[in-house]
UniProtKB/TrEMBL annotation:
Name recorded for this polypeptide: STAS domain-containing protein
SUPFAM superfamilies, per the entry: SpoIIaa-like (SSF52091)
Ranges that cross the membrane: 142-163, 169-192, 231-253, 306-324, 381-400, 459-480, 486-503, 515-546
Pfam family for this entry, one: STAS
Lineage of the species this protein comes from: Eukaryota, Sar, Stramenopiles, Ochrophyta, Bolidophyceae
UniProt membrane topology term: Multi-pass membrane protein
Signal peptide bounds: none
Species whose genome carries this gene: Triparma laevis f. inornata
Disordered: annotated segments: 31-108, 724-744
Highest rank taxon of the organism: Eukaryota
InterPro entries from the UniProt entry: SLC26A/SulP_dom (IPR011547), SLC26A/SulP_fam (IPR001902), STAS_dom (IPR002645), STAS_dom_sf (IPR036513)
Biased composition regions of type Basic and acidic residues, renumbered to the chain: 67-102
Chief place where the protein resides: membrane
Domain STAS: residue ranges: 579-696
Record keywords, A-Z: Membrane, Transmembrane, Transmembrane helix
Amino acid sequence: MVSQAGGMSGVHESTENLLKLLPANFNEKAANSHTWGGSASKDRTPTSLSADMFDPPTSSKLTKRNQTKEPKFREPVHRENPRTQRDLKEAFTQNSKRETPRRGSMSWAARPTCDLKTLKKFLPILTWLPNYDRSKSLRVDIIAGLVIAFMVIPQGMAYGMLAGMPVEYGLYSSMVPPLIYSIFGGAAHLSLGTNAPISILVADSVTAAIPTDTDCSDDPNSEDCQRILDATLLICLLSGFFYMAFMIMRFSIITSFVPDPVLSGFTTGVSMIIITSNTKHVFGVTTKRGMIWEVWQSIIEELPNTNWTAFTIFLLSFISLFAIKEINRKYKSKIPVPIPEQLVVLVVCTAIVAVFDLDVPKVKEIPSGLRAPALMSFHDVNLLIQPALVCSIVTYILTFNVAKALGETNGYEVDGDQEFVANSIAAICGSLTGSYLPSGSFSRSALVGEITGKDGTPLHNVFSVFVVALVVMFLTPLLYHMPKAIMASIIFVALKNMIKIATARKLYYVSKQEWTLWMISFVSTTLLGVTYGILISIVASLGLLVKFQARPATRVMGLLGGEGGLTSKYGTVCLDIKEFAAAKELYGIKIFKFEADLHFANKDWFDQKIRKMDERCQWDRLYAVIIDCSAINTIDLTCVKLLERIHRRYQEKNVKLLFANWKAQSMQKVFEGSGLYETIGEDNFFLKMRGALEVGLARARKRQYEEESRCMDEEDFEAMNQRGDDWIGSSEHNPRPNPIDSVL
């Protein structure tokens, strides 16, 4: 039951009509102290509904109340805990007159200029280098730099070959980009350079855009190889420009649209492509280029021509790599620095091939010295814009995820926009010095973090680059006899951490939708190639996101503990009645929860679910419907019209429509501009669920009393009043349960 005292009203029934329906034992003073609109009465108690509302009233009080006139305007209400949208609006009325500075009114003299803080944000090296602690960081940085250099030398050559370039270009890619990242990058432990997934992505993009009969592994001096080199370097240059454009557009949000299952399926599909493209080095044969099934068909046809010496070298080096890895793992606490298994296997196998002059496919001559900066040919630039765009997006996502993981492990934040700057400058400068698209390596970066800990700095890249530069300038003649089978073994061992079959198995039992994303990413990448695979995967992720937004979850809620939950000391808790047996619905009141923002894409779904809830109502009477808005942060104008239609529909059925957990400020302008507050009434929008439940319960009690009164004749009604019985629920004329008696 709701009263209107002094103009303070939460429900729009007039006081005179309500009083005609009240029994003789109704206490006006108790009811007057529980007005919905926010009366500032000193008699107000914390409990909005209680049994003292039905104590016998005095006639003088009723007479005085009936004579009270409605004021023309509501008086301002200033409450620390506003109850409804009207209360909240009035509480902030006095602040609306305060003058606020206009935007853009700052004078040019007072505008902020580029200061040292801004410069440090653009150049992170100005933050860590002046504070460099040689006693803590210098030793671990030197050790990490040497260890990473011993990994980068064999990996760089293997991944350079994987990218479809001569092996020395993998070493070029491990020099300039890490140095640039040390200046502009925000992840202290990141090792930027070559990476298996990006290597095959670049090779696949060049192959799809510029088909050739041969590649650089067949003849490094051919015209086809030179065209492939120019295209690969041009993709790196274009990606650098794309990075800068992404930074200007604040495009770092793209990382949110590629979930972990997609990345996992993508890397597993890439692993299948890497295995396919390097199997020819395992058997020492030459195969055709093409789709994955065409390459395997060519491998099967060439099996009779297998070079068994090359196969033996591959098998022994593959086993040796795993054996040394196991030694490092087992004796980790006893070995101060891990054994560089890739460098050891490379040196030993190369020495064996050189001493015994074994007839196996070799790397042969590698140019000595650093590559002079030079521009590549722009002949195929029109064909490479789309592949460069895809490569830049995928590379940034993988690199930023590695940097973010390192930051979370070592306690620092990585700025997505600053990573665009670092990767952009690294790609542009790297393309001019022989580097293909650089990316972060998770295995090398994790090793840097393990060696240096929180004392590590980007200076480890300087020591690593110094060692690689020495090898490129003076030691490349020693690599003439290096067999390609070793490169294949190094790549295959590195794939161990990229194949995520266990992740797919886990997703199958946990989430079928995410397992579907994994399978789409894996199958499309394996069969159609890296470029189309990642595009299809991103589209599938966006499609699933749209599905979640257009068809979000909906719930019919119940009050935890039933009727007694409203007065519980733990507060009002509403839960899904299908999932929690302790959540009970209140008779005649439905609570509907929508688990998403309300917009044009899901408005029909919202209306459909509301109608279905009404159709499945288990009672013959429905008194109030409460919409729980705790998950609704925004509502567009299209859905405002929908709410108006729902309000009119319930009005025709004499059902009260209420809104609980209302996010007032986020939707203030939309609702005031559309006039929905005037249509539905501001007092029907509650900031908490408790207020909506109390109004709904009062509405249900009033309606039940009206129905009960129509079922009783005048003599029974007078007899009930004389006995002092409760006016609803326990009489023989009302067999329905009365769920609100215990609360009232």
